[in-house]
Amino acid sequence: MANGADIKSVPLKDVLLTWEPTLIRYFLDNGADPLKGRPFAEAFGARVRTALRPFLEYKRAHADLAAELQGHLDCALRYFCGEGDLKWVSLLMWAGGDPRSRGPCLEKQYTEDPECYTSALEEACRSENLEVLKKLKPNPARDNFTELLHYAAIWGRKETLEYLLEMGANPNDKANGGSSALDTVLRGLGFVRFDAHNWKKLKSRYDVSRSLECVLCFLLTVQSGIPRRHTT
Q1: Residues paired with residue 200 on neighbouring β-strands, in sequence order
Q2: Strand 200-202 vs strand 192-194: parallel, antiparallel, or unpaired?
Q3: Closest residue by Cα to residue 171 from 196, 145, 190
Q4: Is the per-residue pLDDT at 203 higher than 60?
Q5: Quick one: pLDDT band at residue 230, thresholds 50, 70, 90?
Q6: When comparing pLDDT for 194 and 25, which is higher?
Q7: How far is Cα 85 from Cα 150, in angstroms, rounded to an integer?
Q8: In a shared domain, residues 100 and 148
Q9: In-domain check, residue 194
Q10: In a shared domain, residues 113 and 195
Q11: One-character DSSP codes across the chain
Q12: Which domain holds residue 153?
């Protein structure tokens, strides 16, 4: 700056959290680091709407950084898909978020390990808000519905399971005709739970109701079949 201050000494995240587009653009135009610490992902995670347009402008003007900046956008998209926040999923999809890219998820340190990378589609299967998954437009011609069914089964999301089955997911994906997703639901069922004092006792009907609903969903699908809708 004019008096010798180093603009890079101020983390861009702190600037983004001011919500001031003019200040954000000033720092970006004068050499602020847009990559260190994933500042845009952090700002989006904090729901700073005013960071969206400066982000898009900067990404268009710096093609050499576009791939890394895209990764930050997708990182925030995965977070909001898992949270079931349809408004911010819609905003980040509008900004060009890729629901199929794999990488770390905001606020999940273990996903920094490449072996634990996830996608927005997978995170959406964890959400209790089915509309989030629909917003991503999963397509059996492009996406692995067996894996998506598995993620929905892990979390016991009955509506998501029904939606994926209707879209054409194969419930009987094992070589012997069995269902790996049903196996997942049954493994997570468990009729015993431990309380804070390590006392072991049977779970209540409410405790197991979600898993039982998922089991019933699979059984009805296998026994009677359901109308399936395929997208192209």
Answers
A1: 194
A2: antiparallel
A3: 145
A4: no
A5: very low
A6: 25
A7: 22
A8: no
A9: yes
A10: no
A11: -TTS--GGGS-HHHHHTTT-HHHHHHHHHTT--SSTT-HHHHHHHTT-GGGHHHHHHHHHH-GGGHHHHHHHHHHHHHHHHHHT-HHHHHHHHHTT--TT-EE--TT-GGGGSGGG-EEHHHHHHHSS-HHHHHHT---TTTS-HHHHHHHHHHTT-HHHHHHHHHTT--S--STTS--HHHHHHHHHH-SEEE-TT--EEEPPHHHHHHHHHHHHHHHHHHHH--------
A12: 138-232
Structure token pair of residue 163: 């939606």
Same domain, 121 and 231: no
Between these two residues, 99 and 110, which has the higher pLDDT value?
Answer: 99
Closest C-alpha among 165, 139, 138, 134 to residue 150? 165
The first and second tokens of residue 154, run together, are 């892990």
Neighbours of 119 (CB within 10 A): 25
**Tokens 């959290």 belong to which residue?**
17
Long-range contacts formed by 147-152: CB under 8 A, 24+ apart = 147/122, 148/121, 148/122, 149/181, 150/180, 150/181, 150/184, 151/122, 151/125, 151/126, 152/125, 152/126, 152/181
- Are 5 and 97 found together in one domain? yes
- Rg from Cα positions in the chain: 22
**pLDDT tens for each residue of 25-49:** 999 999 999 999 999 999 999 999 9
